[in-house]
Amino acid sequence: MRNAVMFVVLLLYALINYYVGSRFLSLLQLIRPFRLRWFWYLPFAFFACTSAATFVFSSRNLKWVGKIGNYWLAVMVLAFVLFGLTDLVLLAVRLLRKTELSRSVVGASRLAAAAAALLLLAFGLRTASNVRLTKYEVTIEKDTSLDSLKLVLFSDLHLGYVNDHEKLAEIVAKINETHPDIVVISGDFFDGNYNAVQQPKKVAEELRKIEATYGVYLAWGNHDAGDTFEEMRQLALDGGITLLEDEAVTIADAFVLAGRRDSFPLGEQGGSRADMSGRLAEFETGLPVIVLDHQPSNIDEYENVDLILCGHTHQGQVFPINLITDRLFKVDYGYYREGAKQVVVSSGIATWGPPIRLGTKSELVEITVRFGAE
Fold this sequence. Notes:
About 40% of the residues lie in helices and about 20% in strands. The chain is α/β, with parallel strands linked by helices. It has helices at about 1-30, 35-55, 65-95, 105-130, 165-175, 200-205, 230-240, 275-280, 320-330, and strands at about 130-140, 150-155, 180-185, 215-220, 240-245, 245-250, 255-260, 290, 305-310, 335-340, 340-345, 360-370. It starts with a helix and ends with a strand. β7 (about 255-260), α8 (about 275-280) and β8 (about 290) form a beta-alpha-beta unit. The strands form two sheets. Strands 1-12-2-3-4-5 form a six-stranded mixed beta sheet. Strands 6-7-8-9-11-10 form a six-stranded mixed beta sheet, with no helix packed on it. The protein is built from nine helices and twelve strands.
């Protein structure tokens, strides 16, 4: 079944590459006749293979091949959408007018689509790489030994071919600039394949550079799973991260931090998700309780929990997908409150798939938590 699905996906991707290639070729033909059509498709075939190789040969570290493949995927997505929309508009105009459009009109329309795709690509790459700091202030009306807590959250790094140790080094520097009390990672630290991680020793070195009074804690996301999960887990431990796998810990005798396994992991994740209601109930009338749960679709599971920190949605990553995530989730981004329960959902610090963002942002989240009944 898995092989059949992969075959269908690869076939569709090949057809998309052929379609986009044919549209670029039609633009070239406007300038000068190009007779060796098959020769034109060779680079498209090469780049398409780099994208496909990351799925077919997931047990290997393909290094630059995997990186090129991810960037080519961004080119294909934008070009396919814009050429597709342009062709639909041209078809509609032709049917309404009941006449063929001139070659110059078709060419100008497709040229505009190609230019728009390239501009959006450049803008999307820049937006994705620019990590912005988003700040929230949250009050938990429980008395504890702390007056306040500076918590820094990030999610959805998707460590792999595109987001590597150099990206992580930038993130660590930004984290340390905020002087956090605690750093938490709400899932999808990895991109589903340990073999795609470049220079894992340097990744561990960068993680150990994070400066936080109470340490760094991680709860798994749906991509933190699969055949190489144990290698992912070991790398996180080597980086000095405390893993919360359906566990709760009391920190500084002041608050409780719980972390969950993902509810729908894409493969093995060291065990199935456990029911933590009984464990969390121990703290319901005592210390403040903060929960890391990757998917915001789970927030209704919790009662008498003070703050839930999520990721997963990327806020759609690329417009107009954010309109879809807004409908799928009660809260797909930002701050939400329901009674005493408060939720913060991050749009993620990096990207999955095409390394672009349009209409959304890559963010590091700083939350100032204040304690005490008013």
